[in-house]
Design brief:
Layout lengths: L3 H21 L5 H4 L3 H9 L5 H17 L3 H14 L1
Helix pairs in contact: 1-3, 1-4, 4-5
Length: about 80
């Protein structure tokens, strides 16, 4: 099973690729080439089972707050489950 920390790193890499392609105007349909929905779905279903996962979740929350996206809620729920578990 892939760790949450690894999935969050993959998500970050995909977003950086989108930003590079957007800056370079290399791709006309960025969303078709760089779909992050699958990794987002995996992140939302993957439990936090280690300190590395917890730290990665906190970084994702920070990034998500800056962007104003929904992943924050999923990570807060995952952190709560980890802490209470």
């Amino acid at each position: 099973m892939t760790t949450l920390a690894a999935l969050i790193a993959e998500r970050r890499a995909r977003i950086e690729a989108i930003e590079r392609d957007t800056r370079d105007n290399a791709v006309h349909d960025i969303c078709a080439v760089h779909d992050i929905c699958d990794v987002n779905d995996k992140i939302e279903r993957t439990p936090i089972v280690s300190k590395a996962d917890a730290l990665a979740a906190l970084e994702l929350i920070r990034d998500d707050i800056l962007l104003g996206q929904h992943m924050t809620v999923a990570m807060v729920a995952a952190l709560r489950a980890y802490i209470e578990g």
